[in-house]
Write a structure and sequence with these properties.
By secondary structure, the chain is mainly α. It is built from 24 helices and no strands. The two termini are 49 Å apart.
């Protein structure tokens, strides 16, 4: 039976090369990438055999090995995978649970990541082949490394296929993955700013010393401890590694038993009581469109995923500027205007998100000004508290309260300029967007150079119109504080001028282009 599982996995791998040319190209690229990584890793591990400092080699392997284990464990949970050997697929064959668990585990050894792992783990035996006892420990640990990573991958893949079966759960996991990537930014900054010549080895040794006693690093640390002559530590860490494999096997076996008798998760239909925002915003067409937009922003994943992702970009920009050597107090002025920039720009293609539902606006005779103003209600509701809180936080981070009015005015101007320009671009240059009901992480079926051009022009037009305020802010920081008093006045004039002009032009375009918008929605709906 186990041989049949291995043969099935091999046939699946071979059949993968019978797909479309682009998919085959991706597979070949993955094989080449895995081969290059393997060659580099094996070469480094063999070269480490010649390094006399056993402690330094052990520290590096423990830290990098722990990262490898975390990757096998978390990547399927964060992004989800298509498990070709899902235990559920074998539920009707009457295979004993233990045989099925073992067969699927061994089948997990067949694959590009597993092949790379097996070869690199075998190379660690060469790294630690300093005496017969250490070599024996290294051989056992190499086997445990493979079992640990494959079991971790199988467990997380089973959990992902079971827990992330619905579209909403997959989108939530994607957002969590993005937020986890944001949390890596401070770690990257710390790694880059550490003086490795003076403090690097100490920081690496401290990190490896506690990782070597965890399930993530014990299997990597035991051979190093044996090579250093600390056999008591080596045996204890080997025991931790073996216990980790045993615990993962028990979890995997339990998951197989559970999945075989559990139906796939189904999306739950939520029941809502009352009229929601429609009850809070009473009035005419403008209030109705504002209430509908607020409902979309709260329930439609295409909106709230984008909203959650807006704070992600400034974090990476912040790290990049700090790594470039800019002073931290100047860098603290960047995040809030950048958040307002993306918030104002987020509705530049809002009509396309309606799909064919835009016909309700056309046939009901909704005035363009009602549509334009109503759609701006959600970003304004979000933007006002963001600017209020963000301006105070920016002034505290900068260390000078005199900067607060200018930062608030600049951020507000960028927001309203973006909303004004978006009121025009969403009517004049709509382009295909993710369809209602589709995953927020999917790409539209038709998208070309026109979409990229509209995105670029609408984005940089906001920066161009806001540039006078940015110039006055820079002059106030570098030349004279007098310009800090001029910047808010200019921000109010340019900001509200752009907003009102955009609403007026967008309303007229909406009234005139109703048939074109309906044709666009029908063509791309």
């Amino acid at each position: 039976m186990v041989a049949q599982f291995l043969g099935l996995k091999l046939r699946l791998m071979v059949n993968a090369f019978r797909r479309s040319p682009w998919q085959v190209f991706g597979l070949v690229l993955g094989v080449v990438y895995g081969g290059v990584i393997t060659v580099l890793a094996v070469g480094a591990l063999i070269a480490a055999r010649l390094v006399p400092d056993v402690g330094a080699v052990r520290d590096v392997l423990v830290v990098l090995g722990a990262i490898v284990v975390v990757g096998f464990l978390l990547l399927p949970l964060m992004f989800g995978v298509d498990d070709s050997l899902d235990p559920r697929k074998f539920a009707l064959f009457g295979i004993p649970n233990r045989v099925l668990s073992t067969g699927l585990l061994l089948a997990g050894l067949i694959g590009i990541p597993s092949f790379v792992l097996i070869i690199c783990s075998a190379a660690t035996v060469v790294t630690w082949s300093r005496d017969p006892g250490t070599t024996l420990i290294a051989v056992v640990c190499a086997a445990l490394v493979v079992l640990t990573c494959v079991l971790a991958s199988r467990v997380s893949t089973a959990l992902a296929s079971f827990l992330l079966a619905t579209r909403r759960s997959r989108e939530a996991s994607g957002v969590i993955a993005a937020l986890l990537l944001v949390l890596l930014a401070p770690a990257i900054l710390l790694l880059v700013t550490v003086d490795w010549g003076r403090d690097g080895l100490a920081a690496l040794s401290n990190t490896a010393s506690w990782l070597a006693w965890t399930p993530l690093g014990a299997v990597w640390g035991a051979p190093g401890a044996a090579a250093a002559g600390d056999w008591g530590t080596a045996l204890l860490q080997l025991l931790v590694a073996a216990a980790t494999v045993g615990a993962l096997w028990l979890v995997w076996d339990l998951l197989v038993r559970t999945v075989l008798v559990s139906p796939p998760r189904q999306s739950r239909v939520k029941s809502y009581h009352g009229t929601g925002w429609f009850g809070r915003l009473n009035g005419g067409p403008t209030a109705a469109i504002a209430a509908r937009s607020m409902t979309y922003w709260g329930r439609d994943p295409r909106y709230w995923v984008s909203l959650v992702m807006i704070p992600v970009i400034p974090v990476f920009v912040l790290v990049a500027l700090l790594l470039a050597g800019l002073p931290a107090h100047y860098v603290s002025l960047v995040p809030l205007p950048l958040v307002c920039l993306f918030l104002g720009w987020s509705v530049h293609n809002d009509i396309a998100f309606d799909g064919t539902a835009i016909w309700l606006h056309v046939v009901s005779g909704t005035k363009g000004i009602a549509d334009r103003v109503g759609r701006l209600f959600p970003p304004v509701v979000v933007g006002i508290p963001v600017i209020a809180v963000g301006s105070i936080a920016t002034a505290i981070a900068y260390g000078d309260w005199a900067i607060l009015p200018t930062v608030a005015a600049l951020s507000g101007a960028i927001l309203v300029i973006g909303l004004g320009l978006s009121s025009i671009s969403s009517v004049l240059f709509p382009y295909p967007a993710t369809k209602p009901g589709d995953s927020a992480f999917t790409q539209p079926q038709t998208s070309g150079a026109s979409a990229a051009l509209v995105q670029s022009l609408s984005f940089f037009a906001i920066l161009i119109l806001a540039s006078p305020v940015i110039v006055f802010l820079v002059l106030g920081l570098t030349v004279s504080p007098f310009w800090l008093g001029i910047a808010p006045v200019v921000a109010v004039v340019i900001g509200f001028g752009s907003l009102f002009a955009g609403l007026w032009a967008g309303a007229r375009l909406f009234d005139r282009r109703g048939p074109e918008l309906m044709a666009f929605a029908t063509r791309n709906g």
